[in-house]
Structure formats: structure tokens, C-alpha cells
Amino acid sequence: MAVQDVWLQLLIISVSFFMQNLLPIFYRTIQTVCENWNSNHCRHWNFAIDANRKSIARTHFFLQDFFTCNPALVSEPGPFKIAAGFVVGGMQMIEFNFYPLVEDGKQMDAAEKREWTNRLLVRSLPIFLSQLQLASTGEKLKKTWQIPTAHFKLDFLNFLRWSEFPFIATVNPPKDMPPIVDIVRLNRLVMAITLIVESCYYLSENSINCDVMHQLEIKLSDLDDASRKDLFFDCKPPWVA
Q: In sequence order, which residues have a C-beta less than 8 Å from that of residue 131 and are 6 or more positions away?
């Protein structure tokens, strides 16, 4: 066996082992988000949630393949790239279930589920990142990840809303069907979200107080329904008694 082939196999084993250790973190993160939502937020929005564990595992193993021998990304991704992959993969694969709290309550349509999935994934980021280690030192991140401003929060969620594209292939695709996974586009999306996630972390780390979430005057009447939900999904909305 050529030296290059041996090196390649060792690299695959290394990345696979690295991602394999993250599967419990994927489970814990989503479970924590669901439990926190059902305890603190479900009454504000009139629905409870849980998640399909198999879909969480599928997300993990997809990212394991994605980060293996990807020429656009480093062989040992750090926490911000892994978190970006978690968001990108989760947008497509993690299946949240939404349960109305009122009898005969309205069921969400597919578009609403996608929007809430994105919000819940953003809510999961501080939990997810708190369990990861820096690739270079093995140390955990020292700060809690947070979005620095209300406008940043709105723009980030809107970016995710407009970044969605299908990359899950059909079960039995026709022979002449082109591959549905656009790896170049996927790489660019992960790179972009990596920068967004990393910038949030370092903004919150600055000695200057960048958290103006509660200092901005935003008129609710100027926001559409999706933006109002984006802004207040993780706290008590001002219109709730």
C-alpha cells in the first residue's frame, strides 16, 4: 500500500473518530433545547416539542462524511466549523415534532416547521458550543455564545431562511439524475455560518459591552410575523400577558 493511501486511511479514521465522539453531544444538545422549551417557552407560543433521535443521528453521520477529506475544510475542524455544520445539517435533517397545547389546535405547515427548526437550532448553539473543545489545545470555550444585538439576531435568522436548499437525495433516483448534493455550495454555506458564529462569540468576549438587545427601539408594527417570532422566540413576547 502506498504511503499516500496509508495517510489517507489514517486521516479518515482520525476525522471519523473525532466526529463519532460528538454523537452524544448532538443528542444532549437537542434534548436540552426541547426540555428548556417545554419548561419555559411553550406556553408563550402554544406548542410543545420533541425531536426524532434517528434524525439527529443522521445529521451527525452526514457531517462525519462531510468533514472527511473535504479539500475546502481543515482535517480537524474547530468548534465554530462544527457548530456551523450542525446548523446546516440540522436545517435539513433534524426532525422536530410540534404539539399544539390546545385541543384541536392548528397544526404547523411545512414552511412554519422549517422556520421554527431554524430558530431552535440557533437556540441550541450556546448549548452545543459549550460542550466542544478547541482542536489545537483540547480546551473548552471560555465564554457562553450569544447573539450580540437584536438586529444581528433578525439578520442571522433571515440569512438562514434564505440559505436553505435541498441536499438530501431521493431514495431511488433515476440514473440520469444529477447529484443533488452541491458540495461547493454546501462548503460556502458552512464557511459563511462559521464566520457568523465565530463573530458572535468574539463580540460577546470584547470588553466593550456589545449587548444592546434590550436597548434598541424596534416597533413591532414595522416587523412582519416571521421577524416578530425571530426576535422574541426565546423570551416572553411583549404581547403575552
A: 25, 28, 29, 140
Range of the domain at 106: 3-170+177-232
The verdict on residue 238 lying in a domain is no
239 part of a folded domain: no
Please list the pLDDT of the chain residue by residue as tens digits (241 residues): 454 444 444 444 444 445 557 999 999 999 999 999 999 999 999 999 999 999 999 999 999 888 988 888 877 888 999 999 999 999 999 999 999 998 777 889 999 999 999 999 999 999 999 999 887 777 888 888 999 888 899 999 999 998 877 665 555 555 665 555 678 888 999 999 999 999 999 887 544 444 444 445 567 777 888 888 888 888 878 777 6
233 Cβ contact list (under 8 Å, min separation 6): 41, 45, 116, 119, 123
Please count the structural domains in the chain: 1
Q: What is the pTM of this model?
A: 0.81
**Is residue 241 one of the residues assigned to a domain?**
no
Q: Is residue 215 part of a domain?
A: yes
